[in-house]
Task: inverse folding
């Protein structure tokens, strides 16, 4: 029992509720949300140290022992994602201070943002399938409001699509959970893992696994991403950035979790399907990124490529591939937040998202330009930045598993990604400046979170060795479901 | 709004609301061991308020019940969460409940449980949410 496990959910939840109950000035809300996210980050750090010292941490809510109660489980994989989430959400929040506007602040922006983080953290921590559904809903309902908050035309149009597709996938999620319960008689993940292993993963269970794959693919944007480019380009920059950084990652996390913990017995079916979906996702995403001349569209298609690459690591079903997925997942959270924030800033400064009408921004905003350059290189996986190490491991993993085509597609799409972001850099930042000195917007406060994110992506690349011991533990618990099961049932 | 030629509706509402509210509270308390509880009790409570909204206009009801229902929702969830945190203070898992029997004047031997506090929070959250939804839909007209 370790009550710290529930804290990353409780802290943002309580802070958000306090803000709704006692509506105070925006300044107080800003302060409270920074404190809440900071505290969440600190707790995640402590959790990581505890996991490293004494293994996977669990909490049985209300003292009802697993598998009868709801278990919360923090292994190193969750712990690292929690810490990354806290840091990135804090930086996006600071960016929002300068850009979100009074109107949205007055309409519960900060509480909703914290509820979103509550749902994300909950999804990372829960050890129960139904509870995972609940946490997804907490996250999704907050995101419904955040995406439509402000009520501009494009936001309303896109939020209708977004809400419909997510309601459909939530419905399928419930159906899948019902099937799973009917087939196995439990929803506790550890217990599920045991029962599926005992009974053998027969045809019905594999079919259920694929239904889950469809559900989470809809959320993660793996192959079923047709809703994503529109939805992610509608809301304001800070919100779009946190969506791009976190929401798809929760879907990815769920896929990795259930296909390493529960449905890992038939990799030649399930993991092959994941591999094919990953390949198609990478190709289509990269084609989209190359084809468009609109900054928002290029960036949203890059989100899709990232999802495909992470899933390629899982498809290889090997320690190396998963290590790559792990590194790339963390890298992707940071870099997507960074590149969306920069892209959004460029659009605000230039007043348009059409690349053909922007040029020479680097002369007026040198810092912004060079940060974009670093982010672009990191996105494409140029050493020594953080995207490199993940890509190497993933490619190695797919080659080892014999999926040469998958690794090759990963490498080819990396080049296409590099082209697509360099297109933004060369057209938008290079060239003759067309902005007058008077038109120059204020970027001082905005630059701070961007600079930290840039430092993070450099640091994660250069210091990859430093977090290797943590990543190793994370992969160990993913590759060996017995560790997870024993921790939940309090054996061993 | 409609013309106020609805004497029968109003007379019935005055009596019915009282009955519904009583029933809601009954449902709420029976929830500990029998079917019922915070969620359904809260819904019944909200239905009584909705009847008032339908019978009188929203402004009149708001004047008589000057509560911000969004805040009621938040306070309700807060109460539930803090009941859960009670467990943490006593070094038990989050959401641990406790109960005991007490001799109370008038009631005699009574079971008091922290789960009731949690349920009060749930009921408030349900009431707040239901009324917020209904009143924001009605604002469209």
Result:
């Amino acid at each position: 029992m370790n009550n710290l496990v529930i804290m990353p959910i409780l802290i943002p939840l309580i802070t958000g509720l306090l803000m709704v109950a006692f509506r105070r000035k925006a300044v107080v809300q800003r302060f409270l949300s920074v404190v809440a996210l900071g505290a969440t980050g600190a707790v995640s750090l402590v959790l990581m140290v505890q996991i490293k010292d004494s293994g996977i941490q669990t909490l049985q809510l209300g003292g009802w022992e697993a598998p009868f109660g709801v278990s919360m489980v923090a292994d190193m994989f969750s712990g690292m994602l929690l810490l990354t989430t806290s840091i990135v959400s804090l930086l996006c929040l600071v960016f929002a201070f300068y850009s979100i506007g009074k109107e949205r602040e007055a309409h519960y922006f900060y509480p909703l943002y914290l509820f979103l983080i509550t749902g994300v953290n909950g999804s990372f921590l829960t050890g129960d399938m139904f509870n995972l559904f609940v946490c997804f809903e907490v996250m999704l309902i907050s995101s419904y409001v955040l995406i439509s908050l402000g009520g501009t035309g494009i936001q309303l149009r896109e939020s209708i699509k977004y809400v419909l597709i997510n309601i459909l996938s939530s419905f399928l999620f419930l159906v899948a959970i019902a099937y799973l319960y009917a087939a196995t008689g439990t929803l506790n993940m550890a217990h599920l893992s045991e029962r599926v292993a005992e009974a053998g993963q027969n045809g019905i269970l594999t079919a259920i696994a694929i239904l889950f794959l469809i559900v989470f693919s809809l959320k993660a944007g793996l192959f079923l991403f047709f809703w994503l480019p529109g939805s992610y380009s509608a809301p304001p920059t800070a919100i779009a950035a946190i969506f791009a950084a976190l929401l798809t990652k929760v879907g990815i996390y769920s896929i990795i979790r259930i296909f390493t913990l529960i449905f890992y017995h038939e990799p030649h079916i399930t993991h092959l399907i994941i591999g094919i979906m990953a390949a198609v996702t990478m190709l289509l995403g990269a084609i989209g990124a190359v084809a468009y001349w609109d900054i928002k569209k290029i960036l949203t298609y890059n989100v899709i490529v990232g999802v495909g690459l992470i899933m390629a690591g899982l498809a290889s079903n090997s320690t190396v591939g998963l290590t790559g997925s792990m590194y790339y997942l963390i890298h992707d959270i940071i870099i997507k937040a960074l590149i969306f924030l920069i892209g959004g800033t460029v659009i605000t400064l230039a007043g348009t998202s059409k690349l053909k009408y922007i040029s020479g921004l680097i002369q007026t905003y040198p810092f912004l330009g060079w940060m974009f350059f670093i982010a672009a290189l990191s996105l494409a996986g140029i050493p020594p930045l953080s995207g490199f190490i993940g890509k190497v491991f993933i490619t190695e993993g797919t080659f080892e598993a014999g999926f040469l085509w998958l690794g090759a597609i990963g490498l080819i799409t990396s080049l296409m990604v590099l082209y697509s972001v360099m297109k933004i850099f060369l057209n938008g930042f290079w060239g003759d400046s067309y902005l007058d000195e008077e038109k120059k917007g204020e970027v001082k406060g905005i630059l701070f979170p961007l600079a930290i994110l840039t430092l993070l992506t450099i640091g994660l690349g250069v210091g990859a060795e430093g977090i290797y011991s943590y990543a190793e533990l994370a992969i160990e618990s993913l590759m060996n479901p017995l560790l997870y099961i024993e921790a939940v049932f309090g054996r061993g | 709004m409609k013309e106020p030629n609805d004497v029968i509706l109003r007379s019935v509402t005055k009596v019915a609301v009282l009955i519904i509210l009583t029933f809601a509270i009954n449902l709420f308390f029976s929830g500990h061991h029998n079917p019922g509880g915070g969620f359904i009790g809260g819904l019944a409570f909200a239905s009584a308020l909705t009847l008032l909204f339908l019978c009188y206009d929203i402004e009149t009801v708001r004047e008589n019940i000057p509560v911000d229902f969004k805040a009621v929702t938040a306070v309700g969830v807060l109460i539930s969460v803090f009941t859960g945190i009670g467990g943490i203070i006593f070094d038990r898992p989050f959401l641990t409940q406790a109960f005991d029997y007490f001799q109370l004047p008038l009631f005699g031997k009574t079971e008091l449980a922290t789960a009731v506090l949690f349920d009060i929070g749930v009921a408030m959250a349900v009431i707040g949410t239901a009324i917020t939804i209904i009143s924001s839909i009605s604002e469209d007209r």
